[in-house]
Amino acid sequence: MTETRPQPLPQTPLLQVQDLGIRFGGLHAVRDVTASLQPGRITAIIGPNGAGKSTFFNLISGFYQPTSGRITFRGEDITRLRTHEVVGRGIARTFQTTTIYQELSVLDNAMIGHRVRTRAGLLDALLRTGRERRDEEESRAGALRALDRVGLAGQATLPAGALNQEGKKRVGIAMALASDPHLLLDEPAAGMNPEETVNLMGLIRDLVSGGLSVALVEHKMSLVMGLADDILVLHHGQKIAQGTPAHISRDPAVVEAYLGSHAHGGQMGQEQAGRTQGTGVNHA
Ligand SMILES: Nc1ncnc2c1ncn2[C@@H]1O[C@H](COP(=O)(O)OP(=O)(O)O)[C@@H](O)[C@H]1O
Ligand SMILES: [Mg+2]
C-alpha cells in the first residue's frame, strides 16, 4: 500500500472519541469515554485490571462495534468501519508474538503483515491468488522498509522462531508497520524482561521521532511515567483522568483508583502477577 496520506494539520487531534461505549450484556466495559490523541505523541492508556483498556483498543481498531458514541480519525468518522478498513485509514495494531509464524522467515512474516493489513484477510494472504502475486513486490518492499525501521533488516532471512522474545516483538511491530500506519496501537506482550522492555521503549521513541503516533497499553507504571507524553486513565470503563505523567501522578482520582485496586490485590497497570516490579504510581 503506497498511497500517500496528507499530514494532519497542527492542533488537529489525530484521534477523537466522543461518548464512546460498549456493553457486553449488563456490563459496561467502556462507558462514555471522550478523549483525544494528539499526533506525534506517545499516549499511554492505563488503569487497573478490567478497566477497559483492551476493549478501548478493540473499539478503535474496529474489532468491536461500539454500542454508543463516535470515533473520528484524522477528521473522518470511522465508528462503523471494519478492521481492514480501519487499517486502510492508517491505524494498525501490533501483532502479538503468538501470531508470528515461527518457521517462516522474518521477511515472510512482515509480508504477511502487509497483506493481512491491506487485503481481505489471513487466508487471502496465505493463499497466493493472482492479485497477491501482483502485489508481491510491493509487499516485499513495504516489509523490508518496516524491518529496517525496527532494526531487523539484517535478520530478514532468519526463521522468526530463531529470534529471542524482544526480536519477536520487533517482528510483530514490523508486521503492523508494513501497512504504513499513522497511528500504532501497541499492547506489550507478557514475558519481556526489563532490559528487553527498555530496548522496545527506545524503539517506540525512535518510531515516534520518525513521525509515527503511538497509543500503548502499558502494564508497568514506572515505564509509562518515563515514556508517555500523555496518559489516559480508565477505571471501571470510564475515563477518570488524562494529562501529562506529572499531572496524572498527582491526580487524586488516579491515586484513589490505584490505592483501591491495590487494596484488592492488584496494582494499577499490572495485569499479570509476578511479571513486573516497581509499578507504583510514585516510582516515576
Ligand atoms: N468480549 C467480551 N465479552 C464480555 N465481556 C468482556 C469482553 N471483553 C471484555 N469484557 C469485559 O470488559 C471488562 C474490561 O475488560 P478489558 O478491556 O479486557 O480490561 P483491561 O484490558 O483494562 O484489563 C472486563 O470486565 C472484561 O471481563
Ligand atoms: Mg487488557
From TrEMBL:
GO terms for biological process: D-alanine transmembrane transport; L-alanine transport; L-isoleucine import across plasma membrane; L-valine import across plasma membrane. Keywords: ATP-binding, Nucleotide-binding, Transport. It comes from the Bacteria. Residues 264-284 are annotated as: Disordered. The keyword Nucleus does not apply. The keyword Nucleotide-binding applies. GO terms for cellular component: plasma membrane. Residues 269-284 have a biased composition (Polar residues). Residues 15-261 form the ABC transporter domain. One of its GO terms (molecular function) is L-valine transmembrane transporter activity. PROSITE patterns: ABC_TRANSPORTER_2. PANTHER family: AMINO ACID ABC TRANSPORTER ATP-BINDING PROTEIN (PTHR45772:SF7), CONSERVED COMPONENT OF ABC TRANSPORTER FOR NATURAL AMINO ACIDS-RELATED (PTHR45772). This is ABC transporter ATP-binding protein. It comes from Deinococcus wulumuqiensis.
